[in-house]
Amino acid sequence: MQRELLHRRYLCIEGNIGTGKTTLAKRLAQQYDARLILEQFADNPFLPYFYENPAQYAFPVELFFLTERYKQLERILLKPDLFVSQHLSDYFFPKSLLFARINLPTNEFRLFQSLYQILQKQLPSPDMLVYLHRPVEQLLELIRRRGRAYEKHIRTEYLQQIQDAYFDYFKNIKSYPVLILDVQALDFAHREEDYELLRSYIEREYAPGVHYLSILRP
């Protein structure tokens, strides 16, 4: 088992809904013996209601995510464990702000943003962020296949808004590498060769800033 992912103590895997970020995070964490940090989205009691009635439940759903993500990261990242050298997460904290900007009206977003900024200052940035990109049409099919009842209301337009929000945010990141990987040609959840190909890209050294790469099978 390999022990170090290029000395990255804190690596985040991100992506739109259905891209496979949790699947990849679990594989990498196991292979590199990293402490795995998984978003507990299923614990959000407002999430099923939000997909049915976004206008009514957007603020409680986003506030719950914000506070739960902060508590999880604060407990793990700000209290170092001498026996853990690497952390690998299937989300990064700013996603709270990106989703809130999409889902909340202006006045509620301003309130949310104020709280976010207070909490965000206390958390470390990742050493690298890996963003898995797939076309929206492919995401809809992957979401349909996994069959979560509360996700059946997700629309093409919503997924496109999320994608645009991430890409917009990445433009301003200069202090650490952001690796945007187009993985539409890969099935790394079921094909070992696809996983190994994807892993080979993540293992490389990258300068701070945004890097766009399409991964195609040989």
State the low-pLDDT regions, or none.
Answer: none
Structure annotation, total helices = 8
* Helical content (DSSP H or I, runs of 4+): 40-55%
Q: Biggest sheet, open or closed, and with what strands and sense?
A: 6 strands, parallel
State the end-to-end CA separation.
26 Å
CATH architecture: 3-Layer(aba) Sandwich
Here the CATH topology equals Rossmann fold
- Given this structure, which CATH class is correct? Alpha Beta
Radius of gyration over alpha carbons? Answer: 17 Å
- Strand share of the residues? 5-15%
Mean pLDDT: 93
* Tally of DSSP β-strands: 6
Overall 3D shape: globular
Q: Name the strands of the widest sheet in spatial order.
A: 2-3-1-4-5-6
Q: Output the helix-strand order.
A: EHEHHEHHEHHEHE
Structural class: alpha/beta
User: In the residues, how many domains can be counted?
Assistant: 1
User: What is the assigned CATH homologous superfamily?
Assistant: P-loop containing nucleotide triphosphate hydrolases
Describe this structure in words.
This protein is 47% helix and 14% strand. The protein has 218 residues and is an alpha/beta fold. It has a single domain, classed as Rossmann fold (3-Layer(aba) Sandwich). A six-stranded parallel β-sheet has the order 2-3-1-4-5-6, sandwiched between helices. The model has no long low-confidence stretch (mean pLDDT 93).
